[in-house]
Design a protein that fits this description.
Elements lengths: L4 E7 L4 E7 L4 E9 L7 E6 L8 E4 L5 H14 L9 E8 L10 E2 L2 H9 L8 H14 L5 E5 L9 H4 L5 H6 L9 H14 L8 E7 L3 E7 L2 E5 L21 H8 L5 H10 L2 H6 L4 H9 L3 H25 L4 E5 H6 L1 H8 L11 H5 L6 E2 L8 E4 L4 H14 L1
Bound molecules: adenosine-5'-diphosphate.
Adenosine-5'-diphosphate binds next to helix 10 and helix 12.
EC number: 2.7.2.1
GO molecular function, one term: ATP binding
Pathway: Metabolic intermediate biosynthesis; acetyl-CoA biosynthesis; acetyl-CoA from acetate: step 1/2
Length: about 400
Amino acid sequence: MTATRVLVLNSGSSSVKYQLLDMADASRLAVGLVERIGEETSRLKHTPLTGGGAEARVFEGPIADHKAALEGVAAELSKDGLGLDSPELAAIGHRVVHGGTKFTQPTVVDADVLAELESLVPLAPLHNPANVTGIEVARSIRPDLPQVAVFDTAFHATMPEAAWRYALDRETADALSIRRYGFHGTSHAYVSRETAKLLGRTPEETNVIVLHLGNGASASAVRGGVCVDTSMGLTPLEGLVMGTRSGDLDPAVIFHLARVGGKSVDEIDALLNKKSGLIGLCGDNDQREVERRRAEGDASAALAFDVYIHRLKKYIGAYAAVLGRVDAVAFTAGVGENSATVREAAISGLEELGLALDGERNAVRADEPRLVSAEYARVAVAVVPTDEELEIATQAYALVRG
Ligand code: ADP
């Protein structure tokens, strides 16, 4: 029997999201989520997708740590005949946020790799520790199985130095590994490829601007399937206006917050990452709420929307300049896939760049990749649902199959 299943784990500090896929046909066998790990009110929601019955099972009660969480997941999968002890399981694919400069490809994790991942924690203190914990726990449950780390930064490793280097003192920057890395890489990789497919071209012949607009948001410029620029930097704070992150600002704002505002580094970190962006501007980070309030005439929601769109437009223009020739702009993630209003506002006025929407097509809701540009437009505008789990499973499976 060929082992074709891949379990994808996305381990956060207090949560684990998972999907079990069968790579023989890229189908999903089960999906689930463990939340509030370490609290009294933890919750495991497991949805089997085999046998026609997609009835979710929910456990509520204390789940002490990531090990208990994964054991809970394994027990649920066993009930559906999909246990982690199955010989059909080929690999476990782990989302790892930061790969630094070392990890630019999916990597089978051994003790050396684990040590290297630990050394990257200072670059992603909020994310990498939980990712590493997830790998360690999965390894303890199935030590014989390949654990494959797939990095959020990897797709951006092809950026030329002119794009990744900050104009900082080189010695200082290099000594501290300060450079632009970029994130959401599995999404940008997947969506840029799917966009080429939608246009009936190969990735090699296609130049795409990908706009990943979720609660976190990033743009990338992809030339011939290769990333040449992206909006997130050393951390996911740079670039677009996000749900709770400021995105770009004058670095001197930070000195001002410290010297004049009397804030500590940790307070500034929290302000820029958690209390800025849409939530800082209008009190809501959910784009649906922002749009609802704006439609009712709420001035601060309208301003938040305008700041968000202004930044987005600037990146579309900048990446058109970086690419020289643009074949498509692709919208993806929660906001990009669902908000016709954001797409409409972002593309309007960009006719000189060859961009124009078809109002009717843009208003349609669908789960399939689709074109929403006007017939006459020189550059395609696409809505392409992202699938980071499928991309992680695809990369992990390709690696273990050789
Ligand atoms: P994450 O970055 O957490 O993975 P998602 O890609 O799931 O985020 O996107 C979450 C965002 O998508 C939220 O801000 C949510 O408001 C937004 N969103 C979801 N549906 C809609 C919609 N119909 N209109 C506007 N925004 C939406």
